[in-house]
Amino acid sequence: MNEHIMVIDDDMHIGNMLEEALSRENYRVSRAYSGTEALMLLSAARPDLILLDLMLPGLTGEELLPKISGIPVIIVSAKIDVDNKIDLLLKGAADYITKPFNMRELMARIKVQLRSWSASAHSSELVYRELRLNTNTHSVSISGSEVKLTRTEYAILKLLMLNPEQVITKSVMLDRISEDTPDCTESSLKQHISNLRRKLRSADGGEYIEAVWGIGFKMA
After folding, report:
1. In order of start, what are the domains of the chain with their CATH numbers?
2. Which stretches of 99-215 are assigned E, i.e. beta strand?
3. Which of 14, 68, 111, 153 has the lowest tally of Cβ within 10 angstroms?
C-alpha cells in the first residue's frame, strides 16, 4: 500500500502544490487546514508522515507537535529563526524545511524520514553500545546480562533508544511514554530516570543516559 502523508497547512496554494507533487510520487495524501482539524483526523487515521505548517488557525503547529507521537513530522514553515528550529527539533520534530522550499529537496527529506522510521519500526531489537532492548519481549540486557526494569523505566529507555541523537524534554517524554505506562507523573519522572540510570550503571559501570541541563535527557 502507498505511504500516507498528511499535509497540515491553511495556505490553499501551498497545500495544493504539495498534494499534486506528492500524488505524482505515488503517496496517498490527506489534508487538514487547522491544528484542531488535524487533531480530529489523527484520532481516526495514522499517516506515515506529517508535513506541518506552524502558522495555523485554532491550534498552532507548535501546540499540535507535542500531541503527535510515533509519526515523523517535518516542519514546513516561513519562520527561519534558528532558535525556533532548534526548539522544535528538541520537541520531537524529525526535520525542518523553510518556505519557500525546493520541491526536490523536500521529497528527498520525506524519503529519508520514511526509510528511517520504517527501519526502526521493523527492527524488534534496539542496540546502543552494549545495551540491547527487545520491543517484542520487553527484555533489556547489557553485555548479555538481563537488566530488570519496571514498566515505566522500560518505556523511558525505549523512547531514548528510538531517538539516540535527540534530547528529549521532560514534557515530551511524559507525553510519549503515556502510551506505554500510566503511572508516571511530572513529580515522579526524575526518580524513575534516577532508578533507571542506577540499574544500567550497576550492570557494567557505564553511563547510558545523560541529563542535558535545563532541557531533558538523551543517550550518553
Report:
1. 4-121 (3.40.50.2300), 124-219 (1.10.10.10)
2. 125-128, 131-134, 139-142, 145-146, 168-169, 209-212
3. 111
